[in-house]
Amino acid sequence: MKISIWRQFSSNHSASFQMVGTFDSVEKAMEAAEHIRHILREIATYWQNLPAEDREARWDRQPEEITPIEQALSQRYGVEWSRNAYSGEPHRIDWIPADPERTVQAVLQFEHCVFMENIGNTDVGTEPFETLLRKWGASIAAWREVEGTLISMTTTCLAPDEDTAERLLGEVEVITSDDEFARQGVVIGHALMGYSNRSAIRREGRKLIYPLNALLLESINHFPMFFAYLRENGCTEIEYQFSEG
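-> structure tokens emitted (245 positions)
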């Protein structure tokens, strides 16, 4: 079953993204997240250290020149840098604020996954971070506004018995939005997890299946609550995976 979610942006900067990289261990995810935070801090610090007038002039300069720190980082990590999502021309990362502490909020690590999304408006999309995550061993699922791809998350687990599975299925709450797309927000164990067609959430005997359109950085903080809810109700073999399409 394919579940879709539509998003619209009024900004002229229309290459926004959300991305999750899944590693084969928590340690690799932690290491990758720290590398990305380091990159973001270095770029933000470069902008922060410029005099205000100089910063504004350089930020508005055309064409969008890749900054000296980004050139150095590109060489250090052995990866091509960001490009304009439409023209394909080299382009500095344009969504990073001149605030190192705020910048690192763009990346979160949970268990064996690393989540990213742009903070400000952007014309460059996921690069160079998508390539870096792949280079470090991650499989990628991403929502890219310029391409219209979608991210879904499917969680499965085993309830202790069929009666518990049926009860948990009945506890799924659906909140229908009042916008033109009539999206259905799914609340599981008091955690807003994503959007889904209610009928897609089902059980096969003791096995519970929760297919959702993930909210990523919005919902990642709810993951511990969701999984704790499943465990408190005796569920085991809890697994989750992300996919595009």
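The radius of gyration is 20 Å.
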